[in-house]
Amino acid sequence: MKTIKEVVIVEGKTDTATIQKLFDVQTIETHGLAIDDAVLDLIEQAQKSRGVIVLTDPDYPGMQIRNKIMQRVPEAKHAFVNKKDAIGDKKLGIAEAREEAIISALENLVTFSNDQETISWKEFISLDIIGDKARRLQIYDLFHLGYGNAKTLFKRLNLARITKQDILNKLGESK
């Protein structure tokens, strides 16, 4: 069983149980949207000592939790499981995700930085992403950035320091 040195941030107990079947790992549970300052303090301390990886459910509450953590711990690493890979019988989440999807998410971590814009809004529009959901989702998948609308994709591309040329190269459309 592979060991993950960082602490993985998840939403609840079932997420912890699912991940610990696949990896030797410690987790911090946010208790869903009930995440409070005490948990954020714990995450901050874990980042200083071992580093953290945020792995929340691919839904709106999961994105809100991720955003709260990003505000407090901007240097955290992020792992994303695609929505289509995390649908169970009655729920959507990490605990319902396919094992391969969780493993892939934790092997393809993303780090974000606010220091510079790497793709302008004009360049983003020129990629014909807005209004083309399939293309937007393809770019989310290629760069392991999770799921969201076009505005969220633009923000995450810049946070991950991805350029227009990087996107064209991955799409096989470089000029």
Task: Describe this entry's structure for a reader.
By secondary structure, the chain is of the alpha/beta class. The chain is built from eight helices and seven strands. The strands form two sheets. Strands 4-2-5-6-7 form a five-stranded mixed beta sheet. Strand 5, helix 3 and strand 6 form a beta-alpha-beta unit. It is globular and about 45 Å long. The protein starts with a strand and ends with a helix. Pfam families: DUF4093, Toprim. One of its GO terms (biological process) is rRNA processing. Belongs to the ribonuclease M5 family.
Features:
metal ion binding; globular; rRNA-binding; 10% strand; alpha/beta; two-stranded parallel sheet; magnesium; Dna Topoisomerase Vi A Subunit, Chain: A, domain 2; ribosome biogenesis; 2 domains; five-stranded mixed sheet; nuclease; 175 residues
Short description:
By secondary structure, the protein is α/β, with parallel strands linked by helices. The protein folds into two domains: 1-111, Dna Topoisomerase Vi A Subunit, Chain: A, domain 2 (3-Layer(aba) Sandwich), CATH 3.40.1360; 114-175, no CATH class. The chain has eight helices and seven strands, in the order E-E-H-E-E-H-E-H-E-H-E-H-H-H-H.
